[in-house]
Each structure stands twice: as C-alpha cells, then as structure tokens.
Amino acid sequence: MNFMKKNGAGLLLCLAIAVPAWFLGQAVPVIGGPVFAILIGMVITLILTKKEPFTAGINYTSKKILQAAVVFLGFGMNLTEILAKGRQSLPIIISTISTSLIIAFILYKALKLRANNAILVGVGSSICGGSAIAATAPVIKASDEEVAQSISVIFLFNVLAALIFPTLGAMLGLSNEGFGLFAGTAINDTSSVTAAATAWDGIHGSNTLESAAIVKMTRTLAIIPITLILAIYRGRKEKNTEGSTFSLKQCFPFFVLFFVLASVVTTVFQLPADITAPLKELSKFLIVMAMAAIGLNTNIVKLIKTGGKPIFTGFCCWVGITAVSLGMQHMMGLW
Predict the structure, then answer these.
(1) Is the full-model pTM beyond 0.90?
(2) Are 18 and 288 a contacting pair, CB within 8 Å?
(3) How far apart are CA 220 and CA 315, in angstroms?
(4) Which of 91, 217, 241, 258 falls 20 to 30 Å from 266 in CA-CA distance?
(5) Alpha-carbon distances, residue 215 vs 89, 210, 227, 334, 335 (angstroms)
(6) What's the pLDDT tens digit per position in 159-178?
(7) 219: which residues sit within 8 A by CB, 6+ positions away?
C-alpha cells in the first residue's frame, strides 16, 4: 500500500503514455514505440502544471522498470540457436562494435562530449539500439536526459538505414546472405533490421529476414561483457575520485546477471515460443513504459539545443559501422 501510495500516480501516468505509444510503434515499426513514448512524455511534461505527485513513480519506472525490461529480454534468447546460426557473423560483429566504441571515444575527447552521451551513443549504435542503452544507462548512472538524447540519435540513423540500406545493398551487388549479414551487423535496432530485411525480401523475393534477425540477436549478447566492463570501470573511477574502496559487489549490475540467467533458462529447458514470445513482448512494452518516464523527465528545449554533438557522434559511428561491416564481408569472401 505504501509503495502504491508513493509511486502509483507516476506508474499510471507512464502506463497511460506507454499504451498508445506501443500501438503507434506497432503501426510505424521503423520509428518504434520507445521513440513515440519519449516524444509523448516530453510534450506532456511541458503542460503538466503539478509534477510532484508523479515524480516518485516516474523515477521508479525510468530505473527499476527499465532494468526489469532487460531481464525479460533474456527469455527471448536461446543461446545455443543464436551461437550456432550466428557464429559466422562474429568477426564482423566484434569489428563493428570495436569500431563504434573507438569512434565514440575519439569524439568524446575531440568534441568534449559528455562521457555518458559518448558511451550510450557508441553502445547503442554498435549493439542493439534501445535495448543496449536500456541495459547500459543504469550501470553508468546516466541521467534521463542523456538516455533520451541517445535514443533520439539512434532513432534518426535507424530510419535512414531502413530506408537507404536495401537500395545500397542492391547497388553493391550483395547476395541475399550478404544483405542479411549487412543488415544484422550495421543497423542498430531490431525494428529497423526487420524493416530493412523485409524491404529487401519484397524486392528480391528472398528470405533474409530470419538470418538478419539471428545476426542481430547475436549482437545483443554483447550487452553482457559491455555492461560488466562498464560497471568495473565506473566502480574504479568512483573509487579514485571519492577515495572509497573498490567493491565489485557494489558496482555489479545484478539485473544483467538475471538477464543471463533468463537466457540460460530458455536455453537449458528449451522453452517453447508460446512461453518466450509473451515474455519478449513484455520486455518491449516495459522498455516503452520506461521511455515514457524518461520523456517525462526530459526538457525538450534543452535536448534540441545540446543535440548537435551527440548527433554528429552517432553519424560517425553509423558510417564507421557500415564501412566496416561491408569491408569485413569483402575480406572474408562473403561478398
């Protein structure tokens, strides 16, 4: 009762935004529910006269619900199937992730970008868009504004990739298998990978959607090492600045451990699709709900004014990943 008294109003507000945002995302998948939720949340917070009754629930949603979403994401990952079918793409995945993170780090130094913005854009571009940002944000203690900005940057290049890549792949003479690898390794969000692969299949009468999705799921596994490395880095940095003793237990992102356990349960017990599919959908809906909370905590005017550097960083990461994905395919004789 105390929990609902404190958080109920904010939770209901986030839920009220998430439901229409979810259906809008279903209708326009290339944009996606999370982006609609952030936009609606930012508009509502401009007209909300008294925010105090909602604040606790909004903050709970943007932190705890977001972590729960990552945990449920694990139930959609059968590790045996993903690694068996996606191992061919591993060299390309490792190369694209490394490229994005290196570019983000260089631009962080060169442009004096906020560290959290650079990390979120780099990770979101290279791993799996909104899901990677959702997993990384609590680990590095990113603000809701930083999360919203990073999601917005990722969204922009998701749309461009979904529109441009099928035509680009045809111009370059990619095979169906090659385009599946290209879409799965160079587009950063599942909805946009699906949109691009579906467009390719419609043009070429092929079936690249499944292979592109598997490559994309293989990329998603990188959430595990990336979040752990960032947690240790953050813990050591806080130790040095605050003079406290480094404790792995304190900085360890336990929700990522639960994500791994969910994946292991799905793999070991071979959970059928009628169990895992609803859990995957729940994960996606909780991310939308958390993004609504992040939108409610974001000043849209300030977001636009400070968006230049993150957008340029996202563009450079996007171009770098695209070039490396195609280059690695060529080197491996797959194109």
Answers:
(1) no
(2) yes
(3) 21
(4) 91
(5) 6, 9, 20, 15, 16
(6) 899 889 999 999 999 999 99
(7) 93, 97, 126, 127, 128, 184, 185
